Amino acid sequence: MSGRREAVSAFPVVGCDLQEQSFLSEYDFFTNYGNYMPRIHCLQTAEGRPDWAWIVTLIVLNITVLVGYAKIMRTWRACYLAEEERDRDPKLMDLAWIFFFCGISGYGISTVIFFWPAYRLLALFLLLLAIVTWRFAYDLKPFEESFSAKRVGRQTRESLEEEIAESVARESESREAYRVSQAILDSLPSHVCILNTRGEVILTNARWNRFAVNNGGDEAYLLANYLDICRSATGECRSNALALAEAIERIISEGSGSYTAEYACHSEHQQRWFEVCVMPVEKHLEGATIVTHTDITSRVLAEKEAQAQREEAERLALVAKYTDNAVVITDHEVRIEWVNDGFTRLTGFTLDEVRGKVPGEVLQGVNTDQSTVEFMAERISRKQGFDVEIVNYSKAGKEYWLAMEVRPIEDANGKVNKFIAIESDITDRKRREQELADLNRELSEQNEVICTERRLLTTIIDSLPQAIFWKDQSSTYVGCNSVFAELVGMRSPADIAGRTDFDLAWSQDDALQYAANDREVIAGEQVMVNVEQTQSLSCGTQKTIWTSKTPLFDEHGAIVGLVGAFADITNQKQIERRLAQAEKLESIGRLASGVAHEINTPMQFIGCNVSYLSRIVEQWTGLQTAVSALLNGEGSGGLERLRETLPSEDILRSSEEALADCRLGVERVSEIIGAMKEFAHPGSDDSMPFDINRSIQNAATLTKNATKQHAVVELDLAECGLVQGSASSMSQALVNLIVNAADAIEEASDGGIVPGHITISTRQFEDRVVVRVVDTGCGMSSEVAARAFDPFFTTKGVGKGSGQGLAIAYNAVVEKCGGEIKVDSNPGEGTTFTISLPVAYHEDSLMKVSSVTS
Question: What's the alpha-carbon Rg for the chain, to the nearest Å?
Answer without folding.
Answer: 70
